[in-house]
Design brief:
The structure is a homodimer of 251-residue chains. Chain A has 251 residues and is α/β, with parallel strands linked by helices. In chain A, 35% of the residues lie in helices and 29% in strands.
Chain lengths: 251, 251
C-alpha cells in the first residue's frame, strides 16, 4: 500500500519578513501517519517546517511552505507514484497577498475612482477591473514600510488544490478535511457534503475548532453516501480514517 | 546582573484559523542568551511558541504570541524587576488586522463613497474618518469565508512596543534591532540612528535580510554616538552586544 498524507498549514508571503499563516500543529497528521505505519505501507508525507512531524524515519518527508510549493509537490508526487489513498489534512491558505496600499496610495486610488465614476455607481464588473489594475502594479517594496497608520492588503483567492488530486489520480481514495469554527452539527455536515461533491472526495473529516484541543478532538468522518462515524481523539480519528480506507480499497 | 531578552517574531490574528506572522527563527536570541549565560546573571527570555529557545533550563522563559501579549508581559516584567540591560531582538508586527471586506462588501463601501462625495475629492481627514467607520463594524465572522475572489484586509498600526522600555526603566541599557531588506549601508545606518533617537536606545543592531543566513549574519552594533562595530556571525554579534553592555554598565 502507498499513501500520501498532507499535514500542517501553509504560509503565504506578504513581503520578505511577513506572511499570512494558516495554523495547524500537524499533530493529527502525525496520528494518521502512525496509524498507517507498518512494513508494507509506503508513506509520502507533505508538511511544513514548523509543523510536528512523524518520528518514523522511513516515512518520506516532503517540506513545502506556500500553496505554490504544495501544488508543485503534489503534482510531481501524483504523476510519479500510484497512491491507494490521499489524506489531505493540510490547512491550505485560501488567499495569497496580491498587493498592498498605504493610506496615501489608497487615497489616490479612491480619488481616481471618484473622478472616473462621477455621478455613477460601480458594478461588480467595474470593481473587478479596478482590482485587476491594482494587482498589476509592480510590487517594489521588499519590506512594506510602516510609515502609514493603516495598511490595505488585497488578497486574491488561490486555486483549490484539493481538486488536483482526483484530476491526476481518479482511482485514489481521497480523504479531505473541513474545519469550521463554532457552527452547528447540521452546518458542519452540510458544508462537508458539499465539499465531497465539489472535490470528488470519498470522505471528509469534518471538525469544529471549538472542539479541538490537545487531548480531545471531535471529528466526523463523513462518506459519500452521507453516513458517518465519530472520533473523539486524534488517535480515534486516525483509526477511523485507516479503517475506512482499508475497507474502501478492498472494493 | 539581570537582563531581559526578547526573541522570535509575533503573530497577529486575522481570524480563528489565520494569522499574520513576522518571521524570525529566534537563533540570534539563543546566541545572545548563551553569550550572557553564567552563574551570576539572571536572564528573563520572552519568546514565542514556534521560535528556537535557549536550552539552559534556568533561564526564565515567558511565552507570548501577539503584540498585546508582548506589551503586557514587558510591562509586568519591567515593573517587577530591575534590568541592567534589555535586548529587544523580537520581530514585532507593525500592523494588526482591524477588519476585512469581501468584494461585495467593498462594492457597497465604494458606492456609498461615490454617492457621498459626488463631484468632490477625498482628503486624508475624510479617508481616516471613513476607515474609522469601517473599523467599528462588528467582526461577526470567526473564520473568514472564502466565497469571494478577493479579500480586502484593513490593518492598523500597532503602538511601538520598544518605546515602553525606557519609559518604564530609564536607567536600563537598551539594545534595539533594525532589520531592513536589500538596502545600502548608508540607508541602514541612517534608519538605525533614527531608531536610536526615537526609541531612546543605547545601541541598535542593524542588519539586512540579504546578509542573514544559517551560518553568516552580518550585523552592525551602532552606538548613540554613531560609532559601530561589525559582527559576521550570530555568535560574534552576541559577543559584541555582551561586551558593549558590560562596558556601558560600568560607567
Amino acid at each position: 500500500m502507498r499513501i500520501l498524507i498532507t499535514a500542517g498549514g501553509t504560509s503565504e508571503k506578504i513581503d520578505d519578513v511577513r506572511s499570512i499563516t494558516n495554523h495547524s500543529s500537524g499533530r493529527l497528521g502525525v496520528a494518521i501517519a502512525n496509524a498507517f505505519y507498518d512494513e508494507t505501507t509506503t508513506i509520502d508525507y507533505v508538511t511544513t517546517n514548523s509543523a510536528q512531524k512523524p518520528s518514523n524515519t522511513n516515512i518520506n518527508l516532503h517540506l513545502i511552505s506556500d500553496t505554490k510549493n504544495l501544488s508543485a509537490t503534489l503534482e510531481s508526487l501524483l504523476s510519479q507514484n500510484h497512491y491507494d489513498a490521499v489524506i489531505h489534512s493540510m490547512a491550505v491558505s485560501d488567499f495569497t497577498p496580491a498587493t498592498s496600499l498605504s493610506e496615501e496610495q489608497l487615497l489616490t486610488v479612491l480619488n481616481r475612482l471618484l473622478k472616473n465614476y462621477q455621478g455613477n455607481s460601480l458594478n461588480m464588473t467595474d470593481l473587478k477591473n479596478e482590482i485587476r489594475e491594482l494587482e498589476e502594479l509592480p510590487v517594489t517594496e521588499k519590506k512594506i514600510s510602516s510609515e502609514t497608520d493603516h495598511l490595505f492588503l488585497i488578497l486574491k483567492k488561490n486555486p483549490k488544490i484539493i481538486q488536483l488530486i482526483k484530476q491526476l489520480q481518479p482511482e485514489t481514495i481521497l480523504v479531505g478535511f473541513k474545519l469550521l469554527v463554532d457552527v452547528s452539527f447540521n452546518e458542519l455536515y452540510t458544508v462537508a457534503m458539499n465539499s465531497i461533491k465539489k472535490n470528488q472526495a470519498d470522505f471528509i473529516l469534518a471538525n469544529d475548532l471549538t472542539k479541538v484541543g490537545e487531548k480531545q478532538h471531535l471529528g466526523y468522518l463523513i462518506a459519500q453516501d452521507g453516513s458517518y462515524t465519530t472520533g473523539t481523539t486524534k488517535q480515534e480519528i486516525a483509526e477511523l480514517i485507516k479503517a475506512a480506507i482499508v475497507t474502501a480499497s478492498k472494493k
